[in-house]
Task: inverse folding
């Protein structure tokens, strides 16, 4: 993830140029960019493009009432402690708030966790983590700097074209027999 994401937010199209290398993992693509950077190659215009995206949801376990209450308690306790500390900074005489707000947060956290779980229990009684993965990561470079980037990375590429989704073959009606 880039530290300067705000600069490219308005750019909402796929990068054009030449695919200078393709990799199975994002880390390998990042290493290729680092290799270009280390060789003082042109970095401006380089892009890592993930292809064939898949949403993967990994199930981490079953949700029980106890787990839901404990998770809600921890979230509420943390939130209450934060509010209590902020309140104490604003009103130094209110030392009791350091203990009161975390306890209130704990109670409300348990309540909200249990109520939320009871509303979604029929549809979802498990915990999971989601991530988006790509089957392939292409390093794309502008036409004018692609040759140098390919040389530095040590791979051959091709023109970067937007790939259309696979469509089933069109069925042709049978042709009449030829006499």
Result:
């Amino acid at each position: 993830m880039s530290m300067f994401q705000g600069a490219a937010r308005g750019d909402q199209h796929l990068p054009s140029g030449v695919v200078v290398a393709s990799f199975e993992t994002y880390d390998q693509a990042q290493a290729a960019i680092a290799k270009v950077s280390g060789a003082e190659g042109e970095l401006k215009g380089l892009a890592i493009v993930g292809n064939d995206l898949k949403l993967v949801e990994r199930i981490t376990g079953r949700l029980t009432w106890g787990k839901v209450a404990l998770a809600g308690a921890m979230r509420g306790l943390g939130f209450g402690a934060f509010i209590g500390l902020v309140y104490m900074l604003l009103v130094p005489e209110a030392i009791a708030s350091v203990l009161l707000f975390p306890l209130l947060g704990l109670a409300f956290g348990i309540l909200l966790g249990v109520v939320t779980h009871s509303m979604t229990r029929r549809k979802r009684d498990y915990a999971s983590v989601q991530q988006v993965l790509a089957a392939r990561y292409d390093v794309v470079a502008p036409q004018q700097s692609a040759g140098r980037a390919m040389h530095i990375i040590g791979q051959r590429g091709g023109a970067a074209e937007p790939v259309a989704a696979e469509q089933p073959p069109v069925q042709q009606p049978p042709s009449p027999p030829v006499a």
User: Anything to note?
Assistant: Confidence is low (pLDDT under 50) at residues 157-168. Residues 64-124 form one domain. Residues 163 and 169 are 17 Å apart (CA to CA). The beta strands are 18-23, 47-62, 126-141, 158-159.
